[in-house]
Automatic annotation (TrEMBL):
Keywords: Cell membrane, Membrane, Transmembrane, Transmembrane helix. The keyword Disulfide bond does not apply. This is LptF/LptG family permease. It is a multi-pass membrane protein. The keyword Protein biosynthesis does not apply.
Length: 421
């Protein structure tokens, strides 16, 4: 390797690693903000949050690489131009294309790596990330009993307290508990002057130790609702224990999410697209056969009797129309309505199949485009950096944002056109 190549690559490596880390962080932050409401208040551990951040950071790599190459190319060659190093190299008889060659080869390697990463790693990361996100969305909020608010997070119970005291808020004042576990409405109510809240058995159960209260139990009358009676029991101390198993994170089988297009590589996507296309063509061929029973055709045989009858019918004056009964008109109208309903539902089903096939085809092209975009961004950034001759972060960031917005807008437009066929 020439000393010039080492100089260029050394000047490119630092800005590339820096910009890639910054872009990855920005994209990851923006992506996580979309799901912030699904994660807050569920008492998730650092291991769960760490897994989610790791999986989503893997998903951001194909998107971050093109922008990082664009920005680092602008910074590298802008800095070389600003310090007159490009001028010195050119005066030595070395062309600009020769100067760009080491970074071009590096961009080609990054493009190949991005395609492999997008095809082999990203589908697995999608499966891990979105299956975990689904389970986090289904998980209940952490136990949070607030004063003056009815809390029904514990299955079968509704709890209300007037006030919470103590450093940890474990002392409760004015406790009211509705017991719905018997499936009979609010037939059991517990009132207590005060209580103490704590967990037992490693946090698997919540215990409420109630003091100076009464419990009311309704005893319904089988013959008459008006004849129902109440049993009131007073207590000085009462212990109630609730299971907290519903607050645990239960994991769903990842195989249930594997049919999504984001969880497949190019080979699997192509196979699925072929299946959808075969199904679409099969249903299109079945449409005439399914429409045919709605129509009635007059078919004549070749016997002389039928032929004479047909000739007689043709000799009827054109001014005289055959008499049509009301029942025949109603039958024809109903058939027309049925044909229209069938055509509408069939057309919608075929359109949905075609759109689904387009969505899977878009996912195939996305894997190629995100890899080719790395080379495209280098071909934009490197010559432009040599022209503007501005290093640092200011001007390169502004130019990078402009070109990346253009690239993003064209990608969205292309996806919309592809999705609509």
């Amino acid at each position: 390797m020439k000393k010039l190549d080492k100089l260029i690559l050394r000047a490119f490596a630092g800005p590339f690693l820096l910009t890639f880390a910054v872009v990855e962080f920005i994209l990851l932050t923006q992506y996580m903000l979309k799901y912030l409401d699904d994660l807050v208040g569920k008492d998730l551990g650092f291991d769960i949050i760490g897994q989610l951040l790791f999986f989503f950071s893997v998903l951001m790599v194909p998107v971050a690489l093109p922008l990082a190459v664009l920005l680092s190319s602008l910074m590298t060659f802008g800095t070389l131009g600003e310090h007159h190093e490009l001028t010195a190299i050119k005066t030595s008889g070395i062309s600009l294309t020769r100067i760009l060659r080491p970074v071009l080869l590096t961009s080609l390697l990054l493009a190949g790596f991005a395609f492999w990463f997008n095809n082999a790693i990203v589908p697995r990361a999608n499966l891990k990330a979105y299956s975990l996100l689904w389970d986090l969305r289904q998980q209940k909020l952490a136990l949070d009993i607030r004063p003056g608010v009815f809390y029904n997070g514990i299955p079968g119970y509704t709890i209300k307290v007037n006030d919470k005291l103590g450093e940890d808020g474990d002392i409760l004042m004015g406790v009211m508990i509705y017991d719905h576990t018997q499936g009979s409405g609010t037939m059991r109510v517990i009132l207590a002057d005060s209580g103490r809240m704590f967990t037992r058995f490693g946090g698997e159960y919540l215990s409420l130790e109630l003091f100076r209260g009464q419990s009311y139990v309704e005893q319904p009358d089988a013959s008459s609702r008006a004849g129902a009676s109440f049993i009131r029991q007073a207590f000085n101390r009462n212990m109630i224990t609730f299971p907290l198993a519903s607050f645990d994170l239960s994991r769903t089988k990842e195989e249930l999410f594997s049919d999504n297009k984001m969880m497949k590589n190019v080979g699997q996507l192509e196979h699925f697209i072929d299946s959808l296309q075969n199904r679409l063509r099969s249903e299109q061929r079945m449409v005439p056969r399914m429409v045919s029973p709605y129509y009635t055709y007059l078919r004549f045989d070749t016997t002389g009797r039928a032929a004479n009858r047909r000739v007689e019918q043709l000799q009827v004056p054109a001014t005289k129309l055959p008499v049509v009964s009301v029942s025949t008109l109603e039958q024809a109208t109903n058939r027309a309505r049925n044909v229209r309903a069938f055509a509408g539902s069939t057309g919608e089903r075929l359109a949905n199949l075609a759109k689904e096939s387009s969505n899977y085809r878009i996912e195939v092209y996305r894997k190629y485009v995100q890899s080719f975009a790395i080379l495209l961004m280098f071909l934009i950034g490197a010559p432009l950096g040599a022209i503007i001759k501005k290093g640092g972060l200011g001007v390169p960031i502004l130019v990078s944002i402009l070109f990346f917005i253009i690239y993003y807008i064209f990608s969205i437009i292309g996806e919309k056109y592809g999705r609509e066929g």
